[in-house]
DNA sequence: AGCCTTATTGATCATGCGATCAATAGTGTT
DNA sequence: AACACTATTGATCGCATGATCAATAAGGCT
């Protein structure tokens, strides 16, 4: 009984194989971290020789950077999509805080934290990190500015406030990565803090129901 | 001309050599990250054979964990010392926020961020991280509770608020690790957010002078 | 002065990494 | 049916890691 038959991998169209590789890298990163993206790990995951992965990517650094961007950009688009469905900036901001503190997204948080460190030695990755941080900040700034225009928020520096909110979310998520217990009502406390920063009424950013645990 | 004479290292007392090794690991971590702590790197830094480092440490994982604790615990003690010199909780909290956002401490922030990731594969390190996070939280909670006792603050859940403040600080610092520009008045915005959470008067946590750049 | 404890060496092993490239074999086209 | 293109292999190189341990030499003690 051969648990791993070791047959030659079926020949596939380049585009298909390339997609398979980036997909494997993506799953690997989400499950075990960006640093487990190696030629051998990715190749093994799709039953292919290590050299083939190298053949489809200029180098591993680029694969890591690309995987980071794929994972993070997808989340941004997803959340931006959720935003569009809400009528008022107040509700949009509330949903944003609620969604981003969701523990189901801890795997993405782990990617962010690892990228911050890996970026010190992978310049391509560092550039992607800055790019995606800017994208997140733009989303937040947009909501804050819309709130100001609608008369719901009041702050003189939407850009800085957006960065600040982003930083807080990142920090709380990173914390949750290591410490699960201890903090109760993360959403409530954060909402209160943000309400203070954007000049919204107390409680105006809280979701109706206690919702997610 | 031999730039590196390669002589045998002078024999030293075990305690002294051990201290030399932990010190080298410490500096290495602060300069180039926890992951550059290797038997060879540490040994080279003090002009000693790799095997000697292994002789003084059970394994590299332990050296990394110990180095993390040494760096972080020292900072906590230092800040706790500064706290003791201030009369009122309001000033203590203000100083804390101001001090911890100081860019001069970015090297320690980098250690924290790297430890969060490395903790996934180094259980000893993970335990140290949780321990030091608890220590920081305890310091913050103490200040918040003192503020409540003094009638300066008002919140029903000092423990959670302390965790929250800690998370915010961590997040903003991690952000500063990657993005230097964009955010102005980090201290002011954070102070405003924290004032909201602890129920302090607006502006009461701001330092007198703009102080550190 | 001589010995004996032990700090220190450095070679070694097994492992994993990224990268490279000649050889191989599948596939669509002619 | 033969061919040509190219996806795929897998062996290989150089380098780095942690760990181990017999051999060496320094220095304190008698």
From TrEMBL, chains A, B:
Residues 15-75 form the HTH tetR-type domain. One of its GO terms (molecular function) is transcription cis-regulatory region binding. Residues 38-57 bind DNA. This is TetR family transcriptional regulator. InterPro entries: BetI_C, Homeodomain-like_sf, HTH-type_TetR-like_transc_reg, HTH_TetR, Tet_transcr_reg_TetR-rel_C_sf. The keyword Transferase does not apply. Keywords: DNA-binding, Repressor, Transcription, Transcription regulation. Pfam families: TetR_C_6, TetR_N. Gene3D superfamilies: Tetracycline Repressor, domain 2 (1.10.357.10).
């Amino acid at each position: 009984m051969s648990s791993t038959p070791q047959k030659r991998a079926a020949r596939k169209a380049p585009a298909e194989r390339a997609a398979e590789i980036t997909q494997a890298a993506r799953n690997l990163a989400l499950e075990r971290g960006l640093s487990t993206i190696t030629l051998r790990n990715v190749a093994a995951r799709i039953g292919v020789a290590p050299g083939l992965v190298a053949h489809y990517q200029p180098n591993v650094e680029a694969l890591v950077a690309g995987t980071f961007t794929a994972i993070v950009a997808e989340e941004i688009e997803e959340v931006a999509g959720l935003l569009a469905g809400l009528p008022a900036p107040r509700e949009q901001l509330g949903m944003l805080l609620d969604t981003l503190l969701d523990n189901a997204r801890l795997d993405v948080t782990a990617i962010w934290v690892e990228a911050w460190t890996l970026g010190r030695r992978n310049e391509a990755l560092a550039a992607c990190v800055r790019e995606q941080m800017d994208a997140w900040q733009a989303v937040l700034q947009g909501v804050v500015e819309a709130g100001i225009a609608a008369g719901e928020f009041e702050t003189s520096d939407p850009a800085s406030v957006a960065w600040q909110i982003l930083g807080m979310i990142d920090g709380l998520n990173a914390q949750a990565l290591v410490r699960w217990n201890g903090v109760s009502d993360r959403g409530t406390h954060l909402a209160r803090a943000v309400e203070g920063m954007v000049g919204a009424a107390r409680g105006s950013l809280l979701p109706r129901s206690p919702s997610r645990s």
